[in-house]
Amino acid sequence: MIRTPLRPLARILEARQNGENPDAIERENLRIRHEQMRDKSRVRAEGRLLVLGIAFFCAFSVIGARMGMLAASEPAEPRAQVSGHSIIASRADIVDRHGRVLATNMSTHSLYAHPQQMIEPDRAANALAGIFPDIDPDRLAARFKDPKRKFLWVKRKISPEQMQAVHDIGEPGLLFGPREMRLYPNGALAAHVLGGASYGAEDVHAAEVIGTAGIEKFLDEELRDPSRAGAPLELSIDMTVQAAAEEVLDAGMKLMNAKGAASVLMDVRTGEVISIVSLPDFDPNDRPNPLVEGNPSDSPLFNRAVQGVYELGSTYKIFAAAQAIDIGLVNKNTVIDTKPPFEVSGFKIGEFANKNYGELSVEKIIVKSSNRGTGKLALAIGPKRQKEFLKTLGQLDATPLEIVEAKGGAPLFPKRWTDLSAVTISYGHGISTSPLHLAAGYAALANGGIYVNPTLLKRNEPATGTRVMSEQAAATARGILRKVVTEGTASFAEVPGYHVGGKTGTADKPKERGGGYYDDKVIATFASIFPAHDPRYVLIVTLDEPVETSGKKPRRTAGWTAVPVAAEMTGRIAPLLGLRPDFGEPGLEKIFSTSR
Amino acid sequence: MTEMVYGTVPVQGGEPVLPKWWRTVDRWSLACILMLFGVGILLGLAASVPLAERNGLPNFHYVQRQAVFGGLALIALFVTSMMSPLMVRRLAVLGFLGAFIALALLPFFGTDFGKGAVRWYSFGFASVQPSEFLKPTFVIAAAWLMAAAQDLGGPPGRLYSFGLTVSIVLMLAMQPDFGQACLVLFGWGVMWFVGGAPMLLLIMLAGLVVLGGMFAYNMSEHFARRIDGFLTPDVDPTTQLGYATNAIREGGFFGVGVGEGQVKWSLPDAHTDFIIAVAAEEYGLIMVLAIILLYATVVVRSFVRLIRERDPFIRLAGTGLAAMFGVQAMINMGVAVRLLPAKGMTLPFVSYGGSSLIAGGIAVGMLLAFTRTRPQGEIGEILRGRPR
Predict the structure, then answer these.
(1) How far is B195 from chain A (nearest CA, A)?
(2) At what angle do helices B85-109 and B312-336 cross, to 10 degrees?
(3) How far apart are CA A285 and CA A460, in angstroms?
(4) Which residues of B touch A64 (CB under 8 A)?
(5) Are A111 and A77 in contact (CB under 8 A)?
(6) pLDDT value of residue A84
(7) Residue B256: strand, helix, or coil
């Protein structure tokens, strides 16, 4: 770049010689330079201004054209739509193992208001209060008249009759939107399994139905998956059996003056839960609110069969016996001394009602339900092996059942598994598990020693599981369980033709604030399998604080409370399950000749 | 000497003010502005009635106010357009300083009228929005700085004006008032462009904006949803935009008839931000196209007249004022037809609003002052052999 000087030396010198002011030359050059620069920038600006003018003209034209396009188009029916993604409202049905509907969808309407379109807000509010008794007309009218409000929900779900009544008000500002609602046609049946559903994201035109509890929440994504194409979710639950179990358990709970009850019926080979009941229950169509004070386990929402972890007492004894037989420490006829004193780490181990059974065989220990006998077996097994065994039986982890509440049912057991723990756990104290855990454990005894995970989904083939004990040990344990019913504490459990085997358990309830146990509150449990020689099902019945008052003294043991309820239940549901009663070969005296 | 001066009649320096003004002013633009003002009153008759009713005032209360403010605005317009560019520059720079200080003090003394953004000073009988006055005066100040930068040995005016722009944009964004902030930034950009921004830098900037937009779209879900929501053809009819779109559709080519429109009853901003929707509904596409034509005429005519301008300051200042005026109208109408995302922006001279009217009058008055015909050294150029 050539720089042209503002003060060219030649001219300056000449000017000085002529006596002129050389600054004038600089000013003159500066003026010329400025003029050149301005001309240059003006030429550039001319082009750019032209571009700007054209750009503005085009922009105005675009707006005009767009206005014209809009004006030429028909006014569209207003459509409320969230931009981006639409709401998927379809949700798969839930059916039982025979395809009977447990949960389905019903199309209904929601009612909303556009206050700015309302003509007589007061009259509309009063009329609405007449249709929906829970509406406060004054408050609603105030909301209708709030000038800032453009929109408000009046009711999320209304029936066709209510819709007609709202139509009859004749208020143009009251509008309806289509809605899918989740319907549980059987009311409270299997309420804890199904849980319930409510609305998630919603707009006027659709609402997302999302599960709030139970399997509806656990499998929410799967139920809402559009690729299911409406295929229903098949549960392992049998509706008929479930209904019978609920009826019997409800009657039994009232008869035994219990405050709560739970039962689990599980197929021992597949792990399918055929029926699972927790009482008191609720109607999932109208889910109650969770308790805000008091013990949450007193709420009907609480699932005693899955969430409720209790010390299940003597029902645990069979695990100690089965393990001792399995690892070859004893056989069922090995005699063990159960006389006092029996002290572990300075604690005396007692028996029920301070009995002294003397010397008992292993079989008799279970039949008579001796704490000291099982404690000695547990000591022989040792804490480490006992813990491992219970772990493989699924007793130390939350059950993998497909409802959200299952995670809340994690067993409680001591961190340090000492000799004393081993002894108390062997007779079901110091470990708290849910009735479902117990069902899974007994299923392993019943199916020949294989642990299967309980499931709520229909399974058509036997589940694969891990072997936890030998087939012989399991068979021996089953024999012992049968003996408990025929000779021991569970004599009321016998159901003619179905060969029930089982074990009772009566555990004192621990005080809520710690510091020992109540002496007049128990958890009574009966864990049974049937038919005992080739078990198909395991049934657990648990009563919370039962007391049987027909005798002179109130009786609380499971043999008097849970066992009769379980027997009644078995008698009702075994035929429903398609089990043939087996009365053995009829004797000659039963044969009548009808012809001579 | 004294007696010779005493008692003489002072000689008129050149021709009288009014005839000179009439001869040199851009009469077409002036006519367009007056028509826009008339349109504003006409639409106000329809659009501001619901607001008056809601506030329990006489039906045409806001029309009267609009007429009063409009009269003041027209006076300001005429007076300003009669000034010489030098006078305009001096007064505008002083005004800019005042408005700048007022804007800076807003967080301490301003009110938000319950709208969430502190933009106003309340004086009881009226309220003033300093940013409205800041916009045109800022253009003048920035143009002055930029023009000064073109002289040899002048100050680094572009840098100074850019610093001013950034500080104003930040203050406006803090209110928050992104619409005005964008407008200020845009006005400065246009002046920079006309004032000789290097092409390479402009292209790089454009590329950077595109890249940044794509990056934001891909990285930020919120941003992407805003854009997607804007791009989808469906619009939620319960929003202001939905009402506006539907009103334009209802109006069709010839409108539903004077006073028959419904949209003004449901739109809270029918008299300001969405007045074009009221126009479209009641008077149809014809009216809207006429309004657009008026704005386009003012803007394009101003640019064309400025092409011939020799003085860099006048050229830049005029460009900035015209561009801001046009863009404000464009944004307002573009929002109503969903070409642009929603931004609260008044339609100059048509929307109701005291500050905006008077500030608009001053701004257009300055624009008219700059676009007046004045000798551009044509003779000299012809003599120098560079005929245009």
Answers:
(1) 7
(2) 50
(3) 30
(4) 288-289, 292
(5) no
(6) 37
(7) coil
Question: Where residue A85 falls among pLDDT bands split at 50, 70, 90?
Answer: very low
Q: How many CA atoms lie within 13 A of A109 on its CB side?
A: 16
Closest CA to B325 of B133, B136, B134, B131: B136
With tokens 């007045």, the residue in question is B275
- Altogether, the residues listed in chain B come to a count of 388
Give the sign of the dihedral formed by CA A500, CA A501, CA A505, CA A506: positive
Instruction: Report how far Cα A561 is from the mean position of its chain's Cα atoms.
Output: 29
Cβ A338 vs Cβ A365: under 8 Å: yes
Hey, CA dihedral for B211, B217, B219, B223, is it positive or negative? positive
State percent of chain B over pLDDT 90.
Answer: 31
pLDDT band at B13 (very low <50, low <70, confident <90, very high): low
Say whether A84 and B225 touch across the interface (CB within 8 A).
yes
- Select from B341, B340, B332 the least CA-distant residue to B278: B332
What is the CB neighbour count within 10 angstroms for residue A155? 20
Identify the CA nearest to A155 among candidates A173, A183, A174, A182.
A174
Alpha carbon distance B306, A465 (integer Å) = 89
- Locate B54 and state its tokens: 């809601």
Average pLDDT over residues A487-501: 85
- When scoring A26, A34, A54, A67 by the number of chain B Cβ atoms within 10 A, the one with the most, hence best to mutate, is A67
For residue range A446-463, list pLDDT tens digits in order. Answer: 888 889 889 999 887 777
Tokens found for residue B168: 């104003």
Instruction: Work out the end-to-end distance of chain B between its first and last CA atoms, rounded to an integer number of angstroms.
Output: 48
Instruction: Give, as one character, the DSSP assignment of residue A236.
Output: S
Identity (one letter) of the amino acid at B368? L
| A578 HSE (CA, 13 A, CB side) | 4
pLDDT of the residue at A43 = 85
| Closest residue by Cα to residue A471 from A445, A510, A491, A451 | A445
Q: Predicted ipTM?
A: 0.88
Residue-level pLDDT at B233: 56
Amino acid, single-letter form, for residue A57: F
Beta-bridged to residue B120, according to DSSP, are: B111
Closest CA to B351 of B91, B151, B73: B73
How many angstroms separate the CA atoms of A184 and A195, rounded?
10
Question: Closest Cα of chain A to B285: distance in Å?
Answer: 6
Torsion of CA A482, A483, A489, A492, to 10 degrees: 50
Residues in B touching A75 (Cβ below 8 Å): 246, 249-250
Q: How far apart are CA A103 and CA B43, in angstroms?
A: 58
pLDDT band at B71; cut points 50, 70, 90 = very high
How confident is the model over A15-44, as a mean pLDDT?
A: 84
Closest residue in chain A to residue B232, using alpha carbons only: A83
**Dihedral (C-alpha) B337, B343, B349, B352: value to the nearest 10 degrees?**
100
Q: Which residues of A touch B299 (CB under 8 A)?
A: 53, 56, 60
pLDDT at A78 over 50: no
Q: How confident is the model at residue A82 (pLDDT cuts 50, 70, 90)?
A: very low
* Among B199, B140, B195, B198, CA closest to B164: B140
- The distance between the two most distant Cα atoms of chain A, rounded to a whole number of Å, is 171
Residue A81 has pLDDT above 50, yes or no: no
pTM, rounded to two decimals:
0.54
How does DSSP classify residue A457?
B
Inform me whether the pLDDT recorded for B387 exceeds 60: no
Question: In sequence order, what are the residues at sequence separation of 6 or more whose Cβ sits closer than 8 angstroms to the Cβ of residue B2?
Answer: none
Q: Going from the N-terminus, what domains does chain A have, and what CATH number goes with each?
A: 97-126+149-233 (3.90.1310.10), 240-288+298-576 (3.40.710.10)
Distance CA(B258)–CA(B279), nearest Å, equals: 9
Q: Which two tokens stand for residue B88?
A: 């305009």
Which tokens in the block code for residue B377?
């050294």
